[in-house]
């Protein structure tokens, strides 16, 4: 069904007829609905596991993987002791080839990484031969990293009489392990081929200078604290609020991010100082959203009332089994502040396909993308559109808060959002480091969107992919927390797992689809931000196994490696993230969320659990030539050359 109505009362020119009318759709009968009018699996679609680049795997796979990880860890930790006791052979603990530091005890970092890599290879999705090759790749890269670190330590001791602390050696090996994981996944999993979008964004001196300057200030502050307030810093460390370590890296990192967040906030204020209100189209893809579409459209109507320019709405109903299209038609007919609207019903599955089809109906220079389960704030469009007065701005996003009153999980989500989008994302904006804006609400400049090729189909993360492509073309991305919008929080374990699996898997889909960004043209996103995001993704996938590993070392091998202090154990669970969350909530004046902080710290491990599951949903083909899958960008205008 394709309908366009002019709110002045005259019929707009009819659009070309389409064969996929709602009344002609053939499919299953009405699904059984829950108390909120939703089908049991309303959140599932073809985007839950895009064909060719992912596979839906049962939760028991990652549960079994964690159990296997525990057994492998115990075997590897016990191996040196068994070899010494039974065979009289001396095998270095934690496989450390050389260390001149005899004063400090070895931390079993290498055994953890080795156990994790082996477990992942065993449970990866692929044939036996493919998984064996994956294990050998992990082992080779990891052994090479250990050899380089231990060799450098030996050379420093032998030729410069300088002793590397064993903890420093283990830190370097740990960082190498974080890099090995995404490097191996990106080069061996079946992932989208490079998009072909030109990488025109070169490095800017002021971006690097700003990052270096705030980093230097943060380092000086950390040193001053360590020297002048040694006793106080030691006390804070002892109660597990500095990661179980000294005030160096942990404190410096947070001070650096805080400075950047302040500068990013100032930059947003200056960017939105001018009024700018051209005509806009609001594009809403909708799949089984009859339970929510009314509130979404009414929120758009309220935002249109506060916006000075004309607003047109395009609802792209996509393969729904409920009454989404009919309900949208009825609601929009009563929206007084919307100039005109279109409701288009499609049988072609996939959010990206629905979005691209909707773009063909956009006539304005700016398009507001809103998910059908999202309610935008009354000032969201007005505030976000002001940034486009600067012609270099390609897209603007906001603050994705959860709906109020949806239970404890929505409060946990609120803390997560304020940390990520209300603090870290703003800090990235200070130096032009934003490359991903959540698709629940984002406004695009149509010229930039078309130049980037439209929304990629057949992969996860089409929202991040399009903003990264626009960034590569030289456009600036803006994330302004003043543009608030409210999203649905998963209320079942199945819904939460499906959502987070899509989100976390998209990191590898998007990176593979934009390979030319990495370490090219001196871009700060390609050289710093995206590599950092990949390392952070690896850390998150390892976090739950690390907790299991810490418990094993504490309870089974405390006599071998020395029982870690209570502060160190607590720091694995809390540490500096707890302090940072506390400060951010205070800044946002959300003291009502402080009692939820312990629950949020536990949620971080559930998030890690889903991250691990998302990596296990990647496909590893037997042949190298089968690794690349073309992800279509249907609006791309060839040729694009780097």
Order of strands across the widest beta sheet? 1-5-4-3-6-9-8-10-7
Look at the helices and sheets and give the structural class: alpha/beta
Q: Tell me the radius of gyration.
A: 26 Å
Strand content: 5-15%
Mean pLDDT comes to 86
Which percent bin holds the helix content? 40-55%
Shape: globular
Count of individual helical segments? 20
Largest sheet: 9 strands, mixed
The first-to-last residue Cα distance is: 41 Å
Low-confidence stretches: 1-29, 240-247, 638-642
State the total count of DSSP E strands: 11
Subunit organisation of the chains:
single chain
What is this structure, in a nutshell?
By secondary structure, this protein is α/β, with parallel strands linked by helices.
Report on the structure:
- Helix content is 52%, strand content 10%.
- It is an alpha/beta fold and 642 residues long.
- Among the domains are: 130 residues, no CATH class; 86 residues, Rossmann fold, CATH 3.40.50.
- The protein has a nine-stranded mixed β-sheet with strand order 1-5-4-3-6-9-8-10-7, sandwiched between helices.
- Strand 3, helix 8 and strand 4 form a beta-alpha-beta unit.
- The N terminus and C terminus are likely disordered.
Task: Spell out the key features of this protein.
9-stranded mixed β-sheet, Rossmann fold, 642 residues, single chain, disordered C terminus, two-stranded parallel ribbon, alpha/beta, globular, 20 helices, disordered N terminus
């Amino acid at each position: 069904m394709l309908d366009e109505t002019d709110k002045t009362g005259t019929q707009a020119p009819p659009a070309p007829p389409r064969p996929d009318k709602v009344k002609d759709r053939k499919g299953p009968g009405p699904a059984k609905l829950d108390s909120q009018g939703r089908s049991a699996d309303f959140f599932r679609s073809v985007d839950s596991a895009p064909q060719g680049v992912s596979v839906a795997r049962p939760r028991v796979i990652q549960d079994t993987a964690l159990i296997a990880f525990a057994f492998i860890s115990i075997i590897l930790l016990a191996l040196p002791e068994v070899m010494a006791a039974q065979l009289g052979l001396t095998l270095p603990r934690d496989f450390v080839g050389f260390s001149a530091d005899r004063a400090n005890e070895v931390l079993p970092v290498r055994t953890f990484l080795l156990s994790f890599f082996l477990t992942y290879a065993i449970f990866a999705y692929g044939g036996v031969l493919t998984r064996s090759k994956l294990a050998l790749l992990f082992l080779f890269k990891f052994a090479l990293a250990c050899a380089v670190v231990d060799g450098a330590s030996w050379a420093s001791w032998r030729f410069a009489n300088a002793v590397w602390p064993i903890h420093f050696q283990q830190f370097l090996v740990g960082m190498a392990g974080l890099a090995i994981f995404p490097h191996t996944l990106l080069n061996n999993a079946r992932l989208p081929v490079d998009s072909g979008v030109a990488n025109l964004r070169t490095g800017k001196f002021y971006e690097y200078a700003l990052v270096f300057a705030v980093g230097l200030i943060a380092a000086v502050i950390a040193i001053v604290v360590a020297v002048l307030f040694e006793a106080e810093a030691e006390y804070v460390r002892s109660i597990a609020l500095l990661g179980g370590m000294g005030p160096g890296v942990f404190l410096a990192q947070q001070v650096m991010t805080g400075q950047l967040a302040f500068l990013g906030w100032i930059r947003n204020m200056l960017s939105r100082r001018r009024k700018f209100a051209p005509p806009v189209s609001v594009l809403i893809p909708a799949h089984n959203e009859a339970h929510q579409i009314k509130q979404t459209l009414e929120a758009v109507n309220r935002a249109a009332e506060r916006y000075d320019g004309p607003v047109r709405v395009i609802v792209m109903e996509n393969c729904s089994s409920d009454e989404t299209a009919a309900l949208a038609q009825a609601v929009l007919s009563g929206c007084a502040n919307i100039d005109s609207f279109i409701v288009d019903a499609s049988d072609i599955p996939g959010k990206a396909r629905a979005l691209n089809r909707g773009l063909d109906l956009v006539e304005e220079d700016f398009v507001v993308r809103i998910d059908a389960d999202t309610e935008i704030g009354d000032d969201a469009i007005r505030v976000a559109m002001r940034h486009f007065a600067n012609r270099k701005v390609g897209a603007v996003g906001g603050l994705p808060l959860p709906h109020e009153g949806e239970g404890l999980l929505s409060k946990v989500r609120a803390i997560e959002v304020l940390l990520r989008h209300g603090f870290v994302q703003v800090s990235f904006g200070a130096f032009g480091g934003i490359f991903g804006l959540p698709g629940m609400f984002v406004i695009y400049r149509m010229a930039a969107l078309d130049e980037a090729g439209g929304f990629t189909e057949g992969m996860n993360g089409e929202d991040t992919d399009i903003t990264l492509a626009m960034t590569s073309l030289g456009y600036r991305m803006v994330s302004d927390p003043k543009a608030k919008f409210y999203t649905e929080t998963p209320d079942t374990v199945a819904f939460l797992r499906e959502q987070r699996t899509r989100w976390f898997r998209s990191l590898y889909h998007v990176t593979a689809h934009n390979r030319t960004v990495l370490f090219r043209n001196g871009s700060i996103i390609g050289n710093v931000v995206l590599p950092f995001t990949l390392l952070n993704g690896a850390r998150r996938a390892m976090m739950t196994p690390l907790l299991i590993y810490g418990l094993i070392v504490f309870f089974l091998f405390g006599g071998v490696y020395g029982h870690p202090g209570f502060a160190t154990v607590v720091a694995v669970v809390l540490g500096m993230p707890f302090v940072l969350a506390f400060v951010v909530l205070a800044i946002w004046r959300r003291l009502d969320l402080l009692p939820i902080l312990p629950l949020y710290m536990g949620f971080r491990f559930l998030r890690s659990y889903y991250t691990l599951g998302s990596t296990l949903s990647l496909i590893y083909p037997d042949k190298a030539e089968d690794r690349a899958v073309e992800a279509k960008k249907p609006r791309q205008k060839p040729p694009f050359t780097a």
